[in-house]
Amino acid sequence: MTMKEQVIQMCKDLRLPSIRKLVNEETSFTHPEQAIKILHQVLVQEKEDRFIRAKQNRIRTANFPQRKLL
After folding, report:
1. What would the pLDDT profile of 29-43 be if each residue is shown by its tens digit?
2. Gap between the Cα atoms of 34 and 26, Å rounded
3. Which phi and psi (to 5°) does residue 9 adopt?
4. Phi, psi of 69 (to 5 degrees)
5. Considering the chain, what is the average pLDDT of its residues?
6. With CB atoms counted within 10 Å of each terminal CB, which end of the chain scores lower, N or C?
7. Residues 41, 3: contact at Cβ < 8 Å?
8. Would you call 40 helix, strand, or coil by DSSP?
9. Per-residue CA distances from 30 to 8, 27, 34 (Å)
10. DSSP state at residue 65
11. Which pLDDT does position 3 carry in this prediction?
């Protein structure tokens, strides 16, 4: 899977249709290879951050009576 395909798939996962549209066109970038590389790094980081926040939200909404540490 190429980096461009990975970026498109991450845009689908993160629900970013306007960015996906720009990546598909590719003529809107002056240096498409560099833009795809930067977008890939940004989207990977965003996906990791959303995963961490989702985990924290699930723990918070579980309403445990008290915090227990091991």
Report:
1. 889 889 999 999 999
2. 11
3. -65, -40
4. -110, 140
5. 91
6. C
7. no
8. helix
9. 19, 7, 9
10. S
11. 92
Tokens standing for residue 25: 């066109």
Q: Which two tokens stand for residue 58?
A: 């699930």
Q: Is 67:56 a contact under the CB 8 Å cutoff?
A: no
34 burial via Cβ count (<10 Å: 0-12, 13-18, 19+): exposed
| Structure token pair of residue 31 | 């240096």
* CA gap 36, 28 in Å, rounded: 12
Reduced to 3 states (helix: H, G, I; strand: E, B; else coil), residue 67 is coil
- For the chain, list the strands marked E by DSSP: none
Per-residue pLDDT at 54 = 95
pLDDT of residue 63: 85
